[in-house]
TrEMBL record:
One of its GO terms (molecular function) is four-way junction DNA binding. Has three domains with a flexible linker between the domains II and III and assumes an 'L' shape. Domain III is highly mobile and contacts RuvB. Keywords: Cytoplasm, DNA damage, DNA recombination, DNA repair, DNA-binding. It comes from Eiseniibacteriota bacterium. Pfam families: HHH_5, RuvA_C, RuvA_N. This is Holliday junction branch migration complex subunit RuvA. Belongs to the RuvA family. The RuvA-RuvB-RuvC complex processes Holliday junction (HJ) DNA during genetic recombination and DNA repair, while the RuvA-RuvB complex plays an important role in the rescue of blocked DNA replication forks via replication fork reversal (RFR). RuvA specifically binds to HJ cruciform DNA, conferring on it an open structure. The RuvB hexamer acts as an ATP-dependent pump, pulling dsDNA into and through the RuvAB complex. HJ branch migration allows RuvC to scan DNA until it finds its consensus sequence, where it cleaves and resolves the cruciform DNA.
Length: 202
């Protein structure tokens, strides 16, 4: 099992990171929350990993810390939640906020996450709350860097990320357009994605 990767960050996208390890460049699927913590390309990065084995492919997922990876593993342990949906859920909120919502039984918050309806929100609470140690608060969310200015292609980058998370191209473009109207011209790609994910979950 590949437990973690460490090396220069070759490139980063809202849903993927390319990391060079021993002369080989690995592509890791990541959440938007993880993307927000990554350094600039060329800098050293350390990501915890989870290797998902399918008959037709090997998928490597990357995580900022053990809390995010543990939540990912807990999510995919629930029937009907695969790695893609789990990453989408983690893209809608930080691992700390997601855990807080589950521990509190806050289904109103959980249904705002991408791919989570009322029934799934209830299952998350029922099946995962008892796995978390009672009385142990979730870690505070990691502060993200200052959002970058909107640049040419921000809408396209955000839409492409949403498509990789399960949106159709039409749904992605519509959600991005609505998000940009609300957030304005100073929004970063990750802010647009988060807003669009919340809108798409309604």
């Amino acid at each position: 099992m590949i437990a973690a990767v460490h090396g220069p960050l070759v490139a980063k996208m809202p849903t993927a990171a390319l990391v060079q390890v021993g002369g080989v460049t690995l592509k890791l699927q990541i959440s938007v929350s993880c993307f927000e913590t990554l350094p600039a390309a060329g800098r050293e990065v350390h990501l915890l990993t989870y290797l998902h084995v399918r008959e037709d492919a090997l998928q490597l997922f990357g995580f900022t810390d053990e809390q995010e990876r543990s939540l990912f593993e807990s999510l995919i342990s629930i029937s009907g939640i695969g790695p893609r949906l789990a990453i989408g859920i983690l893209s809608g909120a930080t691992a700390a906020r997601l855990r807080e919502g589950i521990e509190a039984g806050d289904t109103e918050f959980l249904v705002t996450l991408p791919g989570v309806g009322k029934k799934l929100a209830q299952r998350l609470v029922v099946e995962l709350r008892e796995k978390f140690a009672p009385g142990v608060p979730a870690k505070a969310p990691m502060a993200s860097g200052a959002p970058g200015a909107l640049h040419v292609g921000t809408g396209g980058d955000a839409a492409a990320a949403l498509v990789s998370l399960g949106f159709t191209r039409l749904q992605a473009q519509s959600a991005v357009n609505e998000a940009l109207q609300e957030l304005g011209a100073d929004a970063s790609v990750e802010e647009v994605i988060r807003k669009a994910l919340r809108q798409g979950a309604r």
